[in-house]
Amino acid sequence: METASENKIIQAQGRFDFLGKITVRSQFGGYGLLANGIMFAVVSDGELYLRANNKIENLFRSRGMSNLVYAKRGLPVLLRYYWVDSTLWEDECTLSHFVTRAYQGAKAEVLSKKGPTVRLKDLPNLSASLERLLWKVGIKNAAELRREGAKRCYLKLRALKCSLGINVLLALAGAISGHHYAVLPLLMRSELIEWFEIHIHSPNITQFETA
């Protein structure tokens, strides 16, 4: 292990111990950092890179963080690990937040791969008929529904069947959050209705219709 990478790993183990014990393994020609068996960062040539997923990649990019480039069979490959420069490294508060988000995102990805595939009709509010509609727009299971989110899924369904009302949007949100549509948290329900009014322009948003 080169001295620069070894020093960075030791520093990271001390800085990120709020996640638990930080272990190390060889990865991408460098060294992966793991907490509780979840790899959330890589150290390469003495530099630290944080793992990104769909939810936080834009956050890292907006900060100006660049990708780790890995040579695979002689060809450069951009990895979803983003460079922690010296300014971010010295900003302990922001760095701790980014590290936490990287770990949480990596953990969610690992759990989604390990867990059983949950059928859509087994979620709250989703009938077999709504499941079939979701299949038609490319949403095959609960994991895909969560990745897309209620609003995006609803827009896809509306493109297929424009008669679908506010109830379907609320049903999708409840399926993702684990609530019956009638008892969605007030803030969530209000935000969804406001979004529906703005983007769908329905003259009767309170009508509840079955899918």
TrEMBL record:
<dbReference type="Pfam" id="PF04994">
    <property type="entry name" value="TfoX_C"/>
</dbReference>
<feature type="domain" description="TfoX N-terminal">
    <location>
        <begin position="16"/>
        <end position="105"/>
    </location>
</feature>
<feature type="domain" description="TfoX C-terminal">
    <location>
        <begin position="119"/>
        <end position="195"/>
    </location>
</feature>
<dbReference type="InterPro" id="IPR026256">
    <property type="entry name" value="TfoX-like_gammaprotbact"/>
</dbReference>
<dbReference type="InterPro" id="IPR047525">
    <property type="entry name" value="TfoX-like"/>
</dbReference>
<dbReference type="InterPro" id="IPR007076">
    <property type="entry name" value="TfoX_N"/>
</dbReference>
<protein>
    <submittedName>
        <fullName>DNA transformation protein tfoX</fullName>
    </submittedName>
</protein>
<dbReference type="InterPro" id="IPR007077">
    <property type="entry name" value="TfoX_C"/>
</dbReference>
<dbReference type="Pfam" id="PF04993">
    <property type="entry name" value="TfoX_N"/>
</dbReference>
